[in-house]
Every structure is written in structure tokens, then in C-alpha cells.
Amino acid sequence: RCFFSLALALVLSLLTGCLNQGTPPTRSRTSATSAAQSGQQLFEAAILALNDLPSAVDLRLRTPTVVLDASTSRNGKTVMATVGARHHESLRRFDLLQVVTRNGRFGRLKIRAGDRVRYFIADRGIVAQINVVRSSRFRQLAQGPDGLNEEVIRRLVDLELQRIGESRLAPIELTVAKVIDDNTLVLAESLPFPVASPQRMEIWRFADERVEEISRRLARYTRGRGPMVDWEPTPDEVAVQKVVDRLNGWVRRRSTSNPWTADPMVDQVPSEWRQAFASKRLSAADYQASDARRLQETVWLRDIARWVGGDRLDELAVARALFDWTVRNIQLVDDLSQQPELALHRPWQILLYGVGTAEQRAWVLAQLARQQGLDVVILALPGADNAPPTFWLPALLSAGQLYLLDTRLGLPIPTADGQGIATLAETRNDPEILRRLDLGKSAEKYPVQAGDLNQLVALVAVSPFELSRRAQAIERQLASQQQMVLTAAPAELADRVQKLDGIAKVRFWDLPLETEQAARRPNQQQRANEAARFLVFATDPYLWKARVLHFAGEFRQGTMAKTLYRRARQLAPSSQKSPRSDYEQTIRRQARMHASYWLGLMAFDEGNYGSAADFFEHRTLQAFPEGSWTAGARYNLARTLEATGAVQQALELYQADQSAQQHGNRLRARRLQPSPSNAP
Q1: Buried b / exposed e across 634-666, counting CB within 10 Å, b at 16+?
Q2: First and final C-alpha spacing in the chain
Q3: Complete DSSP assignment for 107-119
Q4: What is the pLDDT of residues 596-630, one digit of tens each?
Q5: Less CB within 10 Å around the terminal CB: N or C of the chain?
Q6: CB 412 within 8 Å of CB 421
Q7: Which residues are within 8 A (CB) of 152 and not within 5 positions of it... i.e. 6 or more apart?
Q8: What kind and span of H or E run contains 473?
Q9: Interatomic CA distance for residues 621 and 631, integer angstroms
Q10: Phi, psi (rounded to 5 degrees) for 421
């Protein structure tokens, strides 16, 4: 019996041990399954939010209001003030603002700590010195062990003056720390020196913390502090960043990672861009903050491509529709000297503002086409003596042919009979195709000849994110109804294009990377212009939401986009009973002008040509003569008249055009001439 008891105990002990050893794997498998399910839920939540960003726009934002300016001063005149020292000047703290015109009314207007002073210093030298003192570069270079290095300060100020140039400057933003009396207050920020010459000032108050934060961020960007890329305080940025957070939660909970290898064409990246395409960066699994804006950009492009492409099945028809939308919606600019900030813009900014160069139009077109499964490459003429290739136009690759779409003309290159889109092969074999684009005078010749098309460079528009493991992981996981194209296969595309006659080389297009590099190092004028351009969206979230809904094509079934655009028009200064400052008048005028023009574009896409003509002619061109949409409104008005059969009126608008697209518009006019022999 003792032996039996011992044997039984041994068996029970072994069984217990086996059971105990088997339990952890079961628990581990359950834990892994739970983590995978949790990760999938995070992924689905991220994609759901990404596809519904318009609903995440924070509309509670209220614009800053002016408390003190000429309209509210004691005598109705401009308020002029100096800045001096509150204590002894040797302390170099100049934070005492005094109104020399004695019309401040600080007490009566209840000016308080936290209110913002806009101080309009007219002297560029003073502004340059203040910008230098506020910069981190000043602290690093000028504050040595023996105090301030005056020579370094002088050199920094000279450099700042060069960056400022002759551009119109925004006011210096200061904060009220304490009110002493009706005409005296203490500033929270001390100026580096006194301002003895009286300068115009205003005092503003922010309605909530969000508005105050936006103001601070715009000011930091203008001064060159903080992030230079994806710095915009958009009304939906909280939701966009949550998308990245959820995607990173999904990545951490996945049991296995997707197999991934870099595209073979990465090995051919020019040396100056190798760091951007480094394997370590492309293979990283975690999503970065900057990926948020890339994802939002893709959603915009996908939505536009879907409703513009419609139910068309023919590749050429889809490409033509996308090209036409791009030309009508992105007003052409051929000189960046007046708008240097445009060089910083990625496709989402080009779409948002509706302005771009011929190259930027081509970039947007290539991205739209990719969302429809179409391949568009950029054709460039080879540069002489190792110079970079010169941009010519984008071309659709379809059925082994490259179809030519000229974003500078705003027209496809027409076939010999003028009815279709010419291919590269046809254009190389028939010199008359390009010569039919001449306008007669030597200065108005089309700049490319058939003989130039034997050694073309084909450029592939792709960014590092589109070649990354991160983009591929999302694309593989998307359901069909959520599908968007986040990745590119440049090597496979290059193989097909390289086989075509006339193509000497296929390489990456420099524009996407040059744009990112420029955005990371903007000069002072670019920063000031960019902040001013974005300001209307920062202060009016309704306009931002209308724009996003416009891209989504909501106006085709709903009315929300139109309602929000109309709201922006109704809030224009002329409809306000109380007077506004020049600053706010300018913002509201911009909002009304943008909304009027974009309502016209929406009406055109609906086929509501009567409404479109009204918005383009009366509510844009007549309401804002020589405004920022003059060229686009005239062109789209002519397109509207052409669509309604008012050919003679359209022809006259095309012929009189003096915009960057005038060559193409005059070709359209020639096509409308009664004589068929004049058709391009």
C-alpha cells in the first residue's frame, strides 16, 4: 500500500507539473489574440477618423476682437505710443508703453493682463534688431562670457535686413502685463532698446485659449521659431494627430510585422537626397507626427479623384477630367518673386489655396491620377552641360503610349486633327503638332520643337513616405470602401517608361524633396507671407471645413459646403454694423473673396452655369477688381460662357487675357474661331 501511495503521488505530481507547464502558452495565446484585436480596433478607429475629418473641425473658435484702435480711442484718432524703461535704463528692460497722443482709455476699455498689443514699427532696422534679439541664434552667438558681442549683433541685424527685404511687415506682437493708467501699461516682453519715436498701436483680446494659441503659433512661425514644417494650426489638427497616435497603438499590438523591402529604384536616388531615402527611415514602423498631414493629403486627393473621375472607365477620359479639374481649380502662377511662399507648398497646400506653378499643377495631377490607378510621369528636356533637366509637362502612360497634358497652357497637346490628345510618339513623328501651338509672332512661339523630344528625361513624382513600410502597412490593411493609394512603385513604372522611344532616362523628380527642404528653411519673407496666407483659415474654421467638404464632393449630394462658404461671405465687413479695424477688415474681405470664387467653381462642377457665371463675374471680378482671383475668375467665366454656348463672349475673354496662362487661353480662343482652319 505504501508503494501504491507513493506511485499515485508521483503520477499526480507529474500530471500537475504538465498542466502547469501547459497553462502559460494558453494564457500567452489569449493575450496575443486580445492585443491583436485591440490593435485592429485602433486601426479601424484611425481610418474612420481619417475618412471623417470634416466632422472633427472645431467650429467653436472665435476670432480675436479689437479693444483699442482709432475707432475706440478717446478722440477717434490713431493711438501712437513709445516704449521706454520702467526703471533705470542701465537695466536694459524697456517694457513701459506710453501713449503720447493721450487717447488710450486703458481704464475705460478695461484693458487687462493677457491682452495683445500690435505695435506697428515702421523702421525696418528696428524690426530687424528686435527679431535678432528674440532669436535663439542671438543667444547662441551674441551672449558670450564677456557679455554682448556688438559686432556679432551688427552682422546678425544685417542678415535679418536681407531676409526682410522690402516686404510689408506684420506688426510686432506684445502682451500686456499690467495697466498703470489710461495711457500707460507694462509689457510682459521687454524690448532690447527704447522706441522713442511714436508708433501706431492697437490692443486686441482673444476670446478663448485656442485663439490665443493660434496667435502665438503664427507669431513663432513668422519669427522663425518652432517647427517650420506642418506648423499650421488647422481647425482639425487634434483629430489628425490622434490618427497617428492610434496607428502607433496598432503597430505596437500587431503580433507580426508585414514583410517589406525598399523599392529597387531607391538605389538610384541622387546623392543629395540619399539621407531622405535612407533605409532606416523608410523601414521604420512607428508613425511620425509629419505623417498625419501626408495621410490627410491622400484622403483629399482620393476624394477629389473619385468624384471628378466619376464612372468613366476609359483611362484617357479619366485623366482628361482630372487634368481639366486641376487647371480650373489651381490658378497658374509663373513668377514666384511676388509670392515666394508658394515654393514651400506640398499638394495639400496647393489644393487648399488653389494657386500653383505649372510644375505644382503637374504634381497634383500625378497624385490625383495615382488615386485612380493611373500612371503620370513628368517629361523634362535634358539640361546642357550637366544642368538639371527642364520641366516640360506631365504625361499619362496608357497602353504603351505617353499622352501629353500641358499644365502651363492649361490644355492637352492636341492631335493633328485637333480632336484628341497627342502622344509623345505622334509628336516626335509630326513636327506640325507642336508648331500648331505657335501664336504667330516669334516671341509667342511654343517653346518646344519635335527635335527636342529625342532625349527626354522622365521624372517620377514620389516622396519618401510613399516608399515607406508605414505607408505600405496601412494600404494592405484597408478595406475596399476605405481604399486609398498611399504607396508608389517607381521601379516598375520606370521599367515601362524606359522602353519608350524618346526617353533617355528615368529618375526621381526633385520637386517633392526640394519643396520639403525649402519648407524646413524658409526665409523671413516666405514665413511672413505664409502666415498671412494661412491666417484666414486659422481665424475662420467654417471656411476650412467648407474647403474640406468641397474636396470630398459633398456639394454633389448635400448643401453643407455651400452653406459654410455662404457664411464666410455674409461675415464680410460690409455686413457688420459695428466698425472693425483695418486688420480684421482685411481678413474678412479675404474670406468673402475666397468663398465667392470657390462657390463659382462648385456651381460649374454641378453644371449650374448661371450661378457659376454670377459668382465669377459679379461676386468676384466686380466685387474684388484686381483681387487675388482675377485671373482664375476670368478664365472660369470664359469656360462657363463657352459651356452655355456664349462663344463670342468667351472668345473675347480668352483673347484679352494677360495672365500666366494667356498663351493657352489664346489657343482656346483660336479654336473657337468660326474658321476650322484656325483650330489648334
Answers
A1: bbbbbbbbbeeebeebbbebbbebebbbbbbbb
A2: 111
A3: TTTT--TTPEEEE
A4: 999 999 999 999 999 999 999 999 999 999 899 99
A5: N
A6: yes
A7: 141, 142
A8: helix 469-477
A9: 9
A10: -100, 125
